[in-house]
Amino acid sequence: MNRTVLLPLAVVVVTVACRDRPAPTEPSRRPTMSLAGADASASSTVCRAYSNELKRSTAELAQNPADRGLQQKVDAYNRIIADACN
Questions:
Q1: What does the alpha-carbon distance between residue 42 and residue 50 come to, in Å, rounded to a whole number?
Q2: The overall pTM is greater than 0.90
Q3: Best exposed site among 11, 25, 40, 50 by fewest CB in 10 Å?
Q4: Residue 14 falls inside a structural domain
Q5: Which domain covers residue 85, as residue numbers?
Q6: Closest listed residue to residue 33, CA positions, set 22, 45, 19
Q7: Which pLDDT tens digit goes with each residue over 40-52?
Q8: Inside any domain, residue 80
Q9: Other CB atoms within 10 A of residue 48 CB
Q10: What are the residues whose beta carbons fall under 8 Å from the beta carbon of 37, sequence distance 6 or more?
């Protein structure tokens, strides 16, 4: 008796488990924000923080243009912002 109940139950479980799943929907393709064209308050927190550090470092570099380490820091911030925020 148990086998006659378990076999149809197993067939139903396998049938339900093997149904085709609906195809995943594609994520929306919204345009990305650019710090150059957007207000800094509308951008992400990380982009805003890097932008503030870039401004501070650029101001320091203007006072001491011979500082090679500071120039590398400014270049790094420019690359990070271009990669992550644009």
A1: 14
A2: no
A3: 25
A4: no
A5: 33-86
A6: 45
A7: 445 678 888 989 9
A8: yes
A9: 15
A10: none
How confident is the model at residue 59, as a pLDDT?
A: 93
Confidence (pLDDT) at 38: 46
66 — phi, psi (to 5°)? -85, -5
pLDDT for the residue 40:
46
Please report whether residue 38 resides in a domain: yes
Distance, CA of 11 to CA of 76 (rounded, Å): 61
Residue 5 domain-assigned?
no
Give me the residues of the chain with pLDDT under 50, please.
35, 37-41
* Number of domain units in the chain: 1
Cα Rg for the chain, rounded, in angstroms? Answer: 28
Q: Which two tokens stand for residue 5?
A: 């109940």
Return the DSSP state at 50. H
